[in-house]
């Protein structure tokens, strides 16, 4: 096992250990913090597929995070009010079943990523960044005006959704679900990176002309990477909304997109465990520094600057012993 893999496994186990220890000490708030870290890490795992493997710098992944959240909110609110969900001529029942909500959130994010990706991938560089950012702002302002589901005030879900055999209102049980999904996503990302598709996607990032010469369509590879990335981020959005039992337009905001990207950069772009390290560090700083100073983001920005300048490969690269020039 490499040094990077060892430290990555320790960080992942550390999140689980903190949650278990907090549960045994009857500290539900700390369990909730660990759950938040696991969910944000899952969202960052999604972005890391597009950014780290495909080289797609997306500032609009909050679109998929928010779609996942609103998929949960809309379905759960109709189940909560015992009213059907009207979609054109269709009349569907709401649901409080987590597996159904997860599937809906994942599909909604993936389907939305297809037209967004098709349009954005007609460009590259800063233009790709701006188009994805524009889509994020479009969804943000749409959700503000969507008065049927709370508009600017958001939508509250009074009881957390259910999973067969578990009491999801118990913090450690809900954490276990989120941690299991994060672990599954990491295994999936590891398998994807070493698969033929993952290798072709990485090649499309480095040399699209050579990939095209081999008979592959680099834009199609990037589109499917973008869709897969969006699906994982949408799943994280549904979990995040369930954690808070609340969904609001802020899930679509450009700040949310930036936060997910910061997690990837802090942990290490393209590193398998980078999102986990970035999320754990971010939530820790948010909790400790946020209680000391209202402007703690200044310190986060300084840390991000140090990581970008001196820690090649982010926190995981630094732990692996890679310096700026190494």
UniProtKB/TrEMBL annotation:
InterPro entries: ABC_transp_permease, LivM-like
Parts of the chain that traverse the membrane: 37-57, 62-80, 100-121, 128-149, 169-192, 223-240, 260-283, 295-320
Pfam families: BPD_transp_2
Swiss-Prot/TrEMBL keywords: Cell membrane, Membrane, Transmembrane, Transmembrane helix
Main location: membrane
Subcellular location as annotated: Cell membrane
Keyword Cell division on entry: no
Superkingdom of the source species: Bacteria
PANTHER family hit by this protein: ABC TRANSPORTER ATP-BINDING PROTEIN, HIGH-AFFINITY BRANCHED-CHAIN AMINO ACID TRANSPORT SYSTEM PERMEASE
Record protein name field: Branched-chain amino acid ABC transporter permease
Species per Swiss-Prot/TrEMBL record: Litorisediminicola beolgyonensis
């Amino acid at each position: 096992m490499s040094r990077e893999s060892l430290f990555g496994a320790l960080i992942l186990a550390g999140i689980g250990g903190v949650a278990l220890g907090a549960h045994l000490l009857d500290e539900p708030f700390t369990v909730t913090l660990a759950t938040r870290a696991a969910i944000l890490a899952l969202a960052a795992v999604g972005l890391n597929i597009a950014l780290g493997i495909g080289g797609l710098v997306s500032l609009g992944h909050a679109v998929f995070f928010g779609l996942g959240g609103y998929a949960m909110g809309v379905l759960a609110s109709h189940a909560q009010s015992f009213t059907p969900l009207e979609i054109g001529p269709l009349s569907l029942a709401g649901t409080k079943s987590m597996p159904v909500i997860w599937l809906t959130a994942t599909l909604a994010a993936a389907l939305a990523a297809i037209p967004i990706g098709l349009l954005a991938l007609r460009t590259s560089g800063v233009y790709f960044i701006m188009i994805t950012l524009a889509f994020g702002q479009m969804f943000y302002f749409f959700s503000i005006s969507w008065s049927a589901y709370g508009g600017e005030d958001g939508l509250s879900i009074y009881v957390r959704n259910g999973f067969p055999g578990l009491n999801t209102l118990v913090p450690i049980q809900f954490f276990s679900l989120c941690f299991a999904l994060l672990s599954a996503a990491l295994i999936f990302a590891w398998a994807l990176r070493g698969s033929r598709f993952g290798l072709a996607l990485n090649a499309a990032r480095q040399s699209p002309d050579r990939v095209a010469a081999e008979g592959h369509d680099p834009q199609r590879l990037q589109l499917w990477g973008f869709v897969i990335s969006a699906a994982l981020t949408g799943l994280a959005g549904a979990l995040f909304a369930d954690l808070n039992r609340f969904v609001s337009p802020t899930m679509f905001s450009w700040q949310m997109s930036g936060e997910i990207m910061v997690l990837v950069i802090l942990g290490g772009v393209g590193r398998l465990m980078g999102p986990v390290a970035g999320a754990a560090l971010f939530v820790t700083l948010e909790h400790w520094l946020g209680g000391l100073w209202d402007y703690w983001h200044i310190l986060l920005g300084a840390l991000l600057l140090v990581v970008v300048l001196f820690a090649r490969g982010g926190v995981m690269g630094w732990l692996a012993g890679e310096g700026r020039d190494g």
